Amino acid sequence: MQQLKVGGKMETSISVQPVGVYKTTMHSLHIVMKDFMEQQYEYGIVLNRLGKIEGFFSSTELLKHCYEIGFDYVEDIESLMPLTKVLNKKFEIFDGEPTSIKDMPQNIELYILRKGREIVGVIDQQSYLASVVKKQQFELYHFNTIFNAVPSGIMAVNIEGNVTMINPAGEKISGVPREKAIGQFITDIVPPEGLLQVLQDGQGHVEKYKVRKRWYISYREPIFDGKQLVGAVGVFDDISKIEKLSSELDTVRELVKENEALMGNSENGIAIVDVSGNILRKNNQFQQLYLSIINDKNQMEIFFQTINDVVRSKQIRHYEGTIGQGVICHFQFEPIFEEETTQKIIVRVRDITANRVAQHQMTQMKKTLKNLLYMEQSIPYIHQNIEMKEIANEIQKIAKVSAPVLIKGEIGTGRSKLAREIMQNSDRNGALFIEIDCQGKSYAELKKVLVGEPHQFLRLLRTVEGGIVYIKNMDYLPFTLQEQLANLIMQQSKEQSGSKVDVRFIASVSKEITFDGPHAFSERLYYLVNAMTVTTPALGTRTDDVKLIVQQFVSLLREKYNREIILTEDALDFIVSTKWKRNLLDIQECLEQFVVTWPNTILSKEQLVYYLEDKQQELQKSVVVNKIIPLKQAVMEVEKELIQLLSTQHISYRKMAKILEVNASTIIRKVKNIEVDNKVQQ
């Protein structure tokens, strides 16, 4: 017996039985009986004289026919014509082999298989039904396997709303075992009433719902028997993880949008490139700068060499280069790693041309500001005098705050020392201390230092960030510049915290301040720098301190000139008792000049008196000649010194011309020449 496979992916087997094929005119009943017995046929097919199938008979029907005519007479029947009267006509012919059980009509008792003109076998109804049952069992098993293996929960209800099916995933998600769920009303198993709604309106729908802290989604469809609604089925999933991922994805999307906005609004060029230098993402600023890079062969080589270096070293790299029309750029290459391998590189390009120009201007400003003195502490703060000890205690308190301080006192009484002492005792110690002396400077020089160029004052403050700006002898600053300085200080104080520069102001004056008259002081500037006041006493009241300071001067001169210097007691008393115009400044200057010009080791009172008298005679000369120079150069030098001396008096060009007995235009021309010479020297 042959097994025939049918059914495609869901194939099953059908038993194909051999069959006897006989013609009515060629075969006798005796031969048919013998053939059936030898071949054990169950069926036989009868053909007419034209070879057409008349019908079929079974072995049982053959025996019955033989019984009716009598077994003793079987050999006498030469023809099968009598048998044709009892042939079964319920057969179906298949040319080839059936591909599906559905191809075989169910009201047929025998299926005859034919290849071309040859009959190769038959399939009876019993074999067909057995194969149908087997196929249905297989399909049921297949369905149950899928039903149980589906990771989504599946639950079905009948028309009354009672649970008829639930798969293992449904048990796990609902927390109810199958034994307890079957037959129970749906809402006793799961809270949502979605399946009941399907039973009411016969419409499928999708619903996302939350039970406690978990999120679920359910797909619900009606079940019909023909046109009659008989139940509903729901497929549901726990999507809590998906919801979390979705939320995280939304966050990522927002971050991507923010990053794109940052890239778009950034003043710097930003791009993401792969390890070969191909641009994956970029903003407009990068695109504009990149066009200049690719048009410069040298810069392009440096660009791609740096990318290769970053890939190889896995380190951030920086360099600066000039591209396009003199644009100075700072390049930064930062690797992005995936599994410890450089996959992408973030390239940032910043136009630093303005910064470099500002740095150059700052450098030039530092070179030209001869008035700026960086603090170098050499002489300790001496305060043996009772009044100076009180000032020392006051400085300790002043140093703890950052308010402006005004120091009052005569020139050369140690005002700069007090300013530096305030810094040393504050948390600004170690930062930059800049001293700007307004005495002896022309209007043009002071204006250039403080308010000359746009943003000059701001650049000055940024240079001293965190330190102290000490404006010495502020009362020598012309009134117009005082007003301008007051405006700048007020403007800086009104800046927001992010733009304000952290600098403390200390100022000093040597004369009595008045807000009226020809030597009026700016009232606004006075109150801006006068949050706290310290007054240095005159030298005549602190003789003990002066002696110690003079001895310190001598010690410094020994170190500076590497020679022995002995100051006698009478010389020390003479220095202390003498009235010096500029106090300590004149004392220090006198001692140093004496040491330089006199070879003596011992410095006595007699020598000091002789030196000072000789010096006084020299000072009374209108012009002092120190060396021989060309006459033309000497005239120019004298003119320059005269004009600079008059400039310190802050008078107009017309008054200068009147004093020097020349035209005002001559003064203007010579002032401009002096300014040009100063720039060249700088």
Q: Would you give an account of this structure?
A:
- The protein is of the alpha/beta class and about 675 residues long.
- The protein folds into 6 domains: about 1-135, CBS-domain; about 150-240, 2-Layer Sandwich (Beta-Lactamase), CATH 3.30.450.20; about 245-350, 2-Layer Sandwich (Beta-Lactamase); about 355-535, Rossmann fold (3-Layer(aba) Sandwich), CATH 3.40.50.300; about 540-620, Helicase, Ruva Protein, domain 3; about 630-680.
- About 45% of the residues lie in helices and about 20% in strands.
- It contains 23 helices and 26 strands.
- The strands form 7 sheets. It has a 6-stranded mixed β-sheet with strand order 19-21-22-23-20-24, with helices on one face. A 5-stranded antiparallel β-sheet has the order 10-9-13-12-11, with helices on both faces. It has a 5-stranded antiparallel β-sheet with strand order 15-14-18-17-16, with helices on both faces.
- The longest helix has 26 residues, at about 240-265.
- It is rod-shaped and about 185 Å long.
- The model is unreliable at about 370-375 (pLDDT under 50).
Q: Give the name of the CATH superfamily of the largest domain.
A: P-loop containing nucleotide triphosphate hydrolases
| Structural class category | alpha/beta
Largest sheet: 6 strands, mixed
CATH domain topology of the largest domain: Rossmann fold
Give the CA-based shape.
rod-shaped
What's the number of extended β-strand segments? 26
Number of domains: 6
Examine the secondary-structure arrangement and name the CATH architecture of the largest domain.
3-Layer(aba) Sandwich
As laid out across the biggest beta sheet, the strand order is: 19-21-22-23-20-24
* Strand proportion: 15-25%
- Binned, the helix content reads 40-55%
Rg, nearest Å: 58 Å
Number of alpha- plus pi-helical segments? 23
Average of the residue pLDDT scores: 80
In CATH, what is the class of the largest domain?
Alpha Beta
* Gap between N and C termini: 119 Å
Show unreliable segments: 370-377
InterPro entries: AAA_lid_NorR (IPR058031), HTH_TyrR (IPR030828), P-loop_NTPase (IPR027417), PAS (IPR000014), PAS-like_dom_sf (IPR035965), PAS_fold (IPR013767), Sigma_54_int (IPR002078)
Organism: Psychrobacillus soli
Domain PAS: 139-193
Protein name: PAS domain S-box protein
